[in-house]
Structures are given as structure tokens and as C-alpha cells.
Write a structure and sequence with these properties.
The longest helix is centred in the C-terminal third of the chain and has 20 residues. The chain is α+β, with helices and mostly antiparallel strands and 110 residues long. A 5-stranded antiparallel beta sheet has the order 5-4-1-6-9. Strands 2-3 form a two-stranded antiparallel sheet. It has a two-stranded antiparallel ribbon with strand order 7-8. Helix content is 18%, strand content 41%. The protein has one domain: OB fold (Dihydrolipoamide Acetyltransferase, E2P). The two termini are 31 Å apart.
Length: 110
């Protein structure tokens, strides 16, 4: 059986981002705010990591699937870009998947 990976957004405070000007080169920089998450991959313990807070605001605590343009095919496989990472709450993801399956089944029936 294949592994299904899901992300759990922890009920922890947002890690503030920061912006400023580099003392080394005088260039402005911006580090986005982040949230603590756990990646469940079917192992004994999940992997802790952080995701950038989207422009729309922090994710509410819960379980999510990965969406967006975070994964893109390349000539050598798949590239992952965490700046393009979006999380879709699992209940919303199920609704979207059901809609996609219905559309695919309707298209194959014609």
C-alpha cells in the first residue's frame, strides 16, 4: 500500500517574521512568519518542520494535504519549492478530490 502523507498544523503561536537591511551588503531582506507543522508519513513519529504563513493569514490548527505549485516536474524528477507551498485543510481537500473524480468519471463515460 502506498503512503499518504498529511501535514498537521500545530496549535502553537506563529513564529514572527522579520525584515530589515543587511549590515553586510545594505540590501533589504524579508523573512516570512512561519508556523510549526508535523509531517505524518506513516512512521512511528512525525517530522517537525515550519511552513511560511500565507498572505491570507495563519492556517488554523488541523490536518492538511499539500497543494499549490510546491511540486513541479523537471527533466530529472520533481522539484520542491517551499515558497510555493499551500496547505488545504483535509475536509476541503476531500471535497476537491470528490469533484475531480466526478469530473473524470463523467469525461470517461462520454
Amino acid at each position: 500500500m502506498s503512503k499518504i502523507i498529511f501535514i498537521e498544523v500545530a496549535a502553537k503561536p506563529v513564529i514572527p517574521g522579520k525584515a530589515g537591511v543587511s549590515s553586510k551588503n545594505g540590501q533589504p531582506y524579508s523573512i516570512p512568519a512561519k508556523q510549526v507543522c508535523y509531517c505524518h508519513q506513516g512512521e512511528d513519529y512525525p517530522t517537525k518542520f515550519e511552513v511560511p504563513v500565507p498572505d491570507s493569514g495563519p492556517y488554523r490548527p488541523g490536518r492538511y494535504l499539500i497543494a499549490g505549485e510546491a511540486f513541479a516536474p523537471t527533466e530529472r524528477g520533481i522539484r520542491f519549492d517551499d515558497r510555493a507551498l499551500l496547505l488545504v485543510h483535509i475536509t476541503d481537500a476531500i471535497k476537491q478530490l470528490e469533484t475531480m473524480v466526478k469530473a473524470a468519471n463523467a469525461g470517461s463515460a462520454s
